Amino acid sequence: MNPFWRIVGFEYRKMFHKKSMILGLVLAFILSLINGWGILIGNYYINGEVFESHYDAMIKDRAYARSLAGRPVNTELILAASQAYAQIPGSAQYQNTEAYQTFARPYSEIYSLTRTIYNTESRRFNMEDFQKLTDKQAGDFYSIREERMVQVVEQTRMSEKAKKEVLALDNRVQTPFIYSYIDGYTRFFTMMYITGLIAAFFTAVCMAPLFSGEYACRADQLILTSKHGKGQLIGAKLFTGFTAASGLAITFTLISYLQCMLTFGFDGGNTPLQLYMPMCSYPLTMGQTAVLLSASVLCACLFTAAVTMLLSARFRSPFAVIVLAGLLLLAPMFVTVSEANTLLYNLVRLLPTNMMVFKNVTSMIQYELPGLVLRPYVFLPLFGVLASVLLIPRTFRSFRNHQIT
User: Fold this and answer.
1) For residue 283, cis peptide bond before it (omega within 30 degrees of 0)
2) Cβ-defined contacts of 1-7 (< 8 Å, 24+)
3) What is the phi-psi region of residue 48: left when phi exceeds 0, alpha when psi lies from -120 to 50, beta otherwise?
4) Which of 206, 212, 241, 263 is the most exposed place for a label (fewest CB within 10 A)?
5) Would you call 1 helix, strand, or coil by DSSP?
6) Which contacts qualify for 122-126: CB closer than 8 Å, 24 or more apart?
7) Sign of CA dihedral 192, 162, 270, 381
8) What angle do CA 361, 362, 367 make, to 5 degrees?
9) What is the rounded CA–CA span in Å between residue 308 and residue 302?
10) H helices of 105-231, where?
11) Cα dihedral 269, 270, 276, 279 sign
12) Based on the number of CB atoms within 10 Å of its own CB, is 399 exposed (0-12), middle (13-18) or buried (19 or more)?
């Protein structure tokens, strides 16, 4: 067998033979499952009394949504939803009324969709407005959305070229939207942030001792004076790190996807993203968006692995590496940057943690390079891969040129 592959196999055995690593992997798997099913635990309460369990509510709402699947979101459907809501008597807590449960609840997603479009900065569109919706208002649904989209885009600080490209993308969105049940995908989008963090943090823990562990046990003296110590061995370590990071990210992503689909249903893969995000300008389906988000999470994990391996090559303590990598992953969670500051907003999105956030991947704020305007779901994965590649030579040199003591 080629020495390179023998070294890779040895590095994998070193990485995963410890009981602590196996225990950590099992714990990460359990956390991933809790992340997916946690939303179904517990009950809905009205006036201090249990109304229904979250699981029962999901089953009921799924059946209602599937009964409307395939219908275009047009004047007819919007008016039908409005008329159903018009039967609800005036009540601060209308959810427990028989009229809501019987007539309006099947159209609750249509109400949420239209409310997003009809809301304005000066006036909130509420249930009373929806109950009195006119034929003209229902018929103007897509024209109102178009006007709002232009207004929102013009308020950004993107260049005129970027604004035109965003609006051109929005013109490619197919209307009317075709309704479908999409909770499996919407739950997947929400889960992927935590799933990505779990995968990235476990990646950092696995990568931390890859080089620094050799310093700690004094094996660096033997490695760097051996036949393959300054060449194949370092390359094998880097290959092991990146393939392990890829395997972890893909595994946790597949677990989350299958968990969501098997629990909520596989429906909605070909449904336009606008059914979930009405003011999104990208002509994507829910399935395509799931693939793009997964790719961004994968590249964020590769970026995390690259940074962790560089730190591992420079620090003598794996614990110090884990602390620094943990700070890299956790610190962005406490930093908020307004889209109004386009440059800083785009820079902050390049941190591994922020590359996993659904709204960052699908944001209308574009990345602008000389002569190019790149969509975030394209630029973020490309940046993650490019940054990882650029860090490889630095990691290689850091370990190779390490002074043996």
Assistant:
1) no
2) 3/228, 3/232, 4/232, 4/235, 4/236, 4/239, 7/228, 7/232, 7/233, 7/236, 7/237
3) left
4) 263
5) coil
6) none
7) negative
8) 70
9) 10
10) 108-118, 127-131, 135-139, 141-155, 160-171, 183-207, 209-216, 220-223
11) positive
12) buried
DSSP label at residue 179: P
> What is the residue type of 32?
S
Q: Cα Rg for the chain, rounded, in angstroms?
A: 25
Residues in the chain: 405
Q: What is the mean pLDDT of residues 310-332?
A: 92
With contact defined as beta carbons under 8 Å apart, do 272 and 40 qualify? no
- pLDDT tens column, 208-261: 988 887 665 555 455 555 555 466 788 888 999 999 999 999 999 999 999 999
Work out the number of other CB atoms within 10 angstroms of the CB of residue 75.
17
Residues 6+ apart with CB under 8 A from 95: 46, 51, 101
What are the CA-CA distances from residue 72 to residues 9, 17, 174, 176 (Å)? 54, 55, 11, 6
Whole-angstrom distance, CA of residue 390 vs CA of residue 83: 59
Which DSSP letter does residue 101 get? Answer: I
CB atoms within 10 A of CB 116: 15
For the record, the structure tokens of 269 come out as 């893969």
**Residue range 147-178, pLDDT digits in tens:** 999 999 999 999 999 999 999 999 999 999 99
Which uninterrupted H or E stretch holds 290? helix 286-314
Range list of H helices, 217-265: 220-223, 232-264
List all residues 6 or more positions away from 63 whose beta carbon is below 8 Å from its beta carbon: none
| Alpha-carbon 201 to chain mean position | 16
Tokens at 51, concatenated = 């109304």
Run of H or E including 373:
strand 372-374
Encoded amino acid at 45, one letter: Y
CA dist 294 and 287 (Å) reads 11
Three-class secondary structure of residue 27 per DSSP: helix
For 186, list phi and psi in degrees, rounded to 5: -65, -35
